[in-house]
Amino acid sequence: MTARTRSLAAVAVLCAALAGCSSTSGEPRSTSAGTAPSASSSTSSGTASSTSSDDHLVGGRMVSFGDSYTAGTATGATQPSPASFCAQAADNYPRQVAKALDVTLADRSCNAARTTNIGTPQSFQGETAPPQIDGLTADTRLVTIALGVNDNGLFGTLVGCSHYAAVSTSATPCKDSVLGSTPNAVSQIPEVTSSLVAAVRTIKADAPRAQVVLLGYPQVLPEGAQCPSRWPITEGDAAWVNATLGRLDDAIKAAAVQTDSKFLDLRPVTASHTACAAEPWFNGSHVADGDGSSYHPRSGYMTGVARALVAVLQP
């Protein structure tokens, strides 16, 4: 375990109490995190491309940290590294961005990853994915981070709302149940900020020339009328799910502000491509065409996010 991994692991323990490449970089160097925002957002979508990439990035190294919404689970051929259960797709958005910007990629995204897995390994059925930060080197020029929805079981809690629509006449049966019996998944969202701040400060110490971009989460459900044949949920619970993901985005953006990093708001990027849209970027309970997995992004999301990221990184 490297010095930075031990440091992040210790921070992960402290935070809990309060609420494919190995590393070749040297000892972490101390940096002070800024407080002024350096936030950017994009509403672009379509095929990722770049004709005037930032000269600072061309030929450099990119490291991508994330969960299944970054890995692109089941949106294409699965890559075996860093572990097969990570389920990285061959054309996920980190790979599209790396190609567009002409950079070398270390994609450490992994299915079910939490913010703590930046500094701690993941294990599943005898396999282990190393800490995501182990992909970082001192010459890294770009770091993207899209984590937080799996912390404290939030993703499973929100997806579980699909089970309530058919068995309750309440307008918000899922919200009522979660807040009444298992509120921690929602109430502990602010802890995502402190976890990401600690991780980004370590990243900037180890790779001081790297741009860091924190990505928010998408809008997966529309406002108002829903599409129960695709994603069973009441209108009231859908509004609550969207609001809860908005709170998570606020926590991620706060971490970006506190560390003088960029923030990419994906809600405007995805608002017209919800699970109920004519051209959806997200699956509901069933996947008819093999593009993605249940309650996860489709390949269109990968391309849309890639284009938005490239736009943010253009000079």
TrEMBL record:
- Bias class Low complexity marks the residues at 30-52
Source domain of life is Bacteria
Location of region: Disordered: 21-58
Residues at the catalytic site: S68, H296
What UniProt keywords apply to this chain's record, in alphabetical order? Disulfide bond, Hydrolase, Signal
Q: Where is the signal peptide?
A: 1-25
**Keyword ATP-binding belongs to the record:** no
A GO term, aspect molecular function: triacylglycerol lipase activity
Instruction: Please list the residue ranges annotated as the SGNH hydrolase-type esterase domain.
Output: 65-297
* Annotated protein name in UniProt: GDSL-like Lipase/Acylhydrolase family protein
Say which species the protein is native to: Branchiibius hedensis
Q: What phylogenetic lineage does the species belong to? A: Bacteria, Bacillati, Actinomycetota, Actinomycetes, Micrococcales
